[in-house]
Fold each of these.
Amino acid sequence: MRRFVRSHATELALLAVIAVICVFLSFATDRFFTLGNAFDLLNTSSVNIIFAVGLLVVLVAGGIDISFAVAASVVQYLTATVLGWVGGGNWIIGVIIAGALGVALGCINAFLIHGFRIISIVATISTFNIFFGLLMFFTGGVSIYNLPDWLTNRVVLFEREMADGSWAEITLPVLIMAICVVATWALITRTTTGRQLYAFGDNPEGARRFGINIGAMQFIAFGWLGLMAGIAGLVQAHYAQEVVPNALYGRELDVLAAVVLGGARLGGGKGSVLGCILGVLLVSITQNGLNLMGVSPFAFKMIVGAIILAAITLSNTSIERLLPFLKSRRVPS
Amino acid sequence: MADQALDGATSRPLLSLRNTNMTFGGVKALKNVSFEVLPGEVHCLAGENGSGKSTLIKVITGVYKPEAGAVIDYDGQSYSNMSPVTAQAGGIQVIWQDLALFPEMTVAENIAFQTVIGRWPRLVNYAEMRRVATNALQRLGVTLDVDLALHHFPIAQRQIVAIARALVGEAKLVFMDEPTASLTQSETDYLLDIVRNLSASGVAVVFVSHRLAEVLEISSRVTVLRDGALVGVYPTKGLTQSRITELMTGKTFDYSVLHRDLSKSPVMLEVEGLSRPGEIQDVSLAVRRGETLGITGLLGAGRTELALTLFGMRKPKSGSVVLDGKPVRFGSNRDAIAAGVAYLSEDRLSLGLIQPQAIADNMVIASLDKILSSGFISSDRKRSLVNRWIRDLGVRIGKQDDAISTLSGGNQQRVAIAKWLATDPKLLILDAPTVGVDVGARAGIFDIVSKLADSGLAIILISDEVPEVYFNADRVLHMAQGRIVGEYAPGATTLQAIEEAVYA
């Protein structure tokens, strides 16, 4: 038990904060504690969770990426165009095209970082500008509305009529998100590659001495984030039913904050999929609650910022200090 | 140990190197060196920094290729050079000084990390990892919670993990580079026991350490290198610390206690009943101008805590401090520096010096106000200040603008001392000033300390090596559990008596 608490301190702290907020919102609003709202939360958080687990892999490997959200916008445009060429396609073809394009963009980052030894924040700030600049230049800022029908049609996987006549629905993005989450979890915790990524992020020199292929690590990490970003881009286009070039601009910082909030360390070697999900959920639950309470949307950013600050302070404070009775007795060596 | 050496004389060497030459950019790093290790022996490799120890290790582990003509016989095979792959496959393992561990990963993963290496991705077998790790720890006679992340463990146990990792690689020959540099005395004893277990189970250990007492305690033979050449191979039996030092440096050192008459010298620092719960208890002491007060004790005895309290970085709960006749109460170390207290940190690498920055910048960082000219840093003043200290302290450097990390430990320490002298201190606290400094260079540091004392500075010298304070301080205080438990005058008390009291 003590070991579990010590090794999952961040996740438990986040869970506690989320629980407090949920209890508060359940009493403060009558809509919050309903199945419909819970499902809504999942539907709207899906895109960010997909981004988050992708970014987690890069953070675990000791890198950072600023460009993935605009890369997802680029992928949306290119995918829509390619789908036009192939004559419509379907979900499977769409995911393959978007994923492949995402991987390609991620590999550009990895190539810059590994090939030219540019630190990842600088490399990805550059590609952030290049991707977004190219996108705006070639599209002229024009959105795409005539997407294929399969992409814009809502797919409801599970629905239930509530007492008040409204429908609680789980839609396709949740399924795709779940697949991405499980795949990322399996990659980083169940495969040798994943453990090498952790080791590389934790102590690059130590990893090098073990003969880990450093270049491969960068390409796998940024490629995986590219894959997730590509898929997230497609899902976002589906959810919004349109492709707007600057729709995802700025999303990178929200996702980054959520992932770091979830316990991933800037600098590598630390972070979990569960933490990531909790980080994203904390932010979206807060926004959802503020919405339901009728708080002015202009105050959202401010309050979300304060919540992030409070949660990160809480999870940085050592668990021993918060719960002194858990303090382990040091065995003299 | 002695019977082991006799056994060894009859068995075939596990490793035997001959005619090993190595040149880096015109400098001969190894001159026709030969080296031999017997199966299961603990062999010490001694030499100052730059004597060729690490080059030799890197030749044996395949990192460097020696010049043509070298013969490496290892485990029945003969090679002209090693490759890292052959060396590892043959069971040669190195435990680097920085350990190369993964702090966020579990003990099991750290020990059995080899199982996740390989060209093709596979599923991780955590149960197998746990089994491998537990087995390796069992061979060392240690139990650790293998599922806990490594960063929860103190440094001594991380060492054990690094050793266990080497065992997983089916080690026959393990190199340990300064394994005890950051360990306390009891942790060191524990580690030496582990090394004995290792040796008893048939693994040969090559031990590199600056701490000669350990070398004598653990090894059966010592190979000494100086300036890239072999000085000789000696059985440990019959060697003494001073003999090894002579062999390593080629110089003889004169060890004698200080005899300074300071009874008429005014008191510079007077501490009465200084306490900080859990750290120091009721500490009273006085240091005169021109006096060096030695403080020794095991790590964790409160020595560094006392120093930090005198330096204003920790606030005492009770007690008084009088500096140069004036009662002082420091709110921060800035106050302490302004009042004339300087503190040379025990951790030169991460706290004492800013490693990537230039020598000159490191030297002036504590006295920037002295090199200002109309509010801005004057590069002329900076240069003249730096030149003065480089000359006075005999620092050997290339250029002032070279990074401090390019200097040897001894020269880095001189820069760190110069940094504090530039603040015009009245009291200089030296916390473990010889950690990571060569035996030869240590004498140079203590020459400086002695001259500083003669110039009227009051000096507190903290060290866990009793001989250091014995030969370089006028008085020696012994700290244990935050208290001062003994005071000795070198000369009047023997070194052995103090050592017995401290290590008891």
Note: Chain B has 18 helices and 22 strands.
Amino acid sequence: MKDSNGLVFSGSVSRRTLMLGAAAGAVTLAMPNILRAADKPTLVTSIRSLSNPYHAVWKTGAEAYAKWAGLEHVTLVSEGNSEKGIADIKAMLAKTNGNMVLSSDPNDTPDARPIVEACAKAGAYVVTQWNKPADLHPKDFNPNYVSHIEFDGIASGKTIAEILFKTIGGKGGIVALGGLISTTAAIERKKGLDAALAANPDIKLLDFQVANWKSTEAFDLMGNLLTRFGDDIKGIWAANDDMGSGALEALRAENLAGKVPIVGVDGIKTAVDAVRTGEFACTVTSDPLWQGGMGLAIGYNAKIGKFDPAKEPPEHREFYGKAVLISHDNVEEYYKTNVESKPEIDWNDLWGRVTGAIRA
Amino acid sequence: MTIQTEPLKSVSDIERTTLMTFLPGRIATMLGGRRWRRLAPLAVLVVLCILITIANPNFIELRNLVRLANSAAVPLTLAMGLTFIILMGSIDLSVEGTLSVAAMVVVLLAANDSNGNDYGWWAVLAAIASGTIMGLISGLVQTMLRIPSFMATLGMWFIGLGLSVYMLGGSAIRLNDASIRDLALHRFLGLPLAVWVAIGAFALAAVIQYYTRLGRHILAIGGDEDVTKLSGVNVTRVRIAAFALAGFFFGIAGVLAAAQLGQSHAVIGDGRLFAAVTAVVVGGTALTGGEGGVVNTLIGVLIVTVLANGMILLGISPYIQQTVQGLMIIAAVALSLDRVRLKIVK
């Protein structure tokens, strides 16, 4: 696992490191509070699993921030089990007497409420990301529920569509591969595509098909679409990179790779490599490294009184983060700073990536 | 070569013939009875092809037929293995797990972007061997521990899946070995090599079913296991061999899938179990065992592939494609099985 797949694995840890970390954490927790510099809060990250590259990178970002700030950091993994996720957080609250900052990607939408309520009760500071019920608001739990961060699926779908349209010269036919019909991300990204299509009447959507986020399904689907539309297909819009890479292999089997540009969302390594070779026109990523570190940074700064959450504007309490676009123009630089080496993030710039308040 | 046994119809059978079983039976009789019914899947395939061609002549373009063959390659290889198991009256649910283990092995041992291995075609052999071993274990668990094939192979499915997740670290790893990727990218006589491999798998399966003792014993077990046992067949050995054989075919399919996608991830097999079972059943092989065979399965795979291709060509909305598939399964099974003769419908 050398630098060649650094992006995907930049956050991965060997099992030994993980065990050492866990053991070290356990030992630390067993110490009396006095030995742990009682005035400094513990940083806690709660995520779904370490077996997917996304959350592995998230953890790296959280650790990078903790190191930068000189604080203790603990990672809790729910393994997709909401009960376990909430119970672990409550256990941490008890251990730290509420002297902690939590950055959480709740396993499921309803989980956010008990997590936030437990933190508020114990006096801990919490930042949630991606999942929360629509009627749960940070402003109702001042000052403990600091912020909630999401990424705008409509904007992502629209941005990549616009780049695709530009790449094919503003006119011609495209096909679109959507995600699992019922998921929010699939619905939002398609809305973004529709918005871009409405603004570009010369682009014709030949067909919209669903490949359920999977490269295998996209592979078969793309072959069939090539039969139906043949050379009329000038570009391919995919709701995630995995489907985009399946479509790319279907093109490759027909000697069309690189001739029909593809766009996707997520910034997985296959896609970044394909952007470098010109087979993908672009991909966007929510930058999990930033998410992992900044979730803690925002909570910690509120905790130590750098800012008062109650006085912050709404777009700092519930906001869309800025997705990072990886296209032909910046892919070499992105590769150098994110794949070949660890990127530098300014952890003092709390609101630099705020793009606006979350739609009600 | 299936041995048709015509049970004597008892009075109670006729009494049992209600309207529901009467109607399809009557239609089949009008069409000429059982002989014709056996050709029903083929008729469905031909009718489908004609209808799709009328709607969109692109369908019979050579380029599209090549694509059809290409997307049928993996399902056909999988379904070859599964046919033997279903002929025995058992089921193998480990399709996805075994396939993902084989794909994982070939990618991790051949040149890839995660480790320094570069064993070339040895990786392919290792992948097929690992598939065979998985099948062998299923067979041993089933016969030695006396666990029904449904449960034994369900367990193997998750064991295989877990193994792949662990080895691949939850991510997708790319296959960089050019000669293995040529299975999907290189063409011989206009067809990708993967298609030739699938045709080879079909030929092998046909030889095994029609010209070997193992093939006949498998069919006999499906027909009546007790009678087979009394005739002196070592049923245990045949079962273990059949599951290992199925694993062998799943292993080949795993290699083809990895070569086509140019990568392997743990969920590379997602949805393939359902597709394979559908193809076998639609082709006319009975889930109760003892009836059907690899030729039926070939037609079943083609029906499923042609339908998927046709629905895209006809521009059927993705929101109702699954519904069409479901209707087709029911229709095909209703046409191809002699429901009147079924005493019990479970």
Note: The mean pLDDT of chain B is 84.
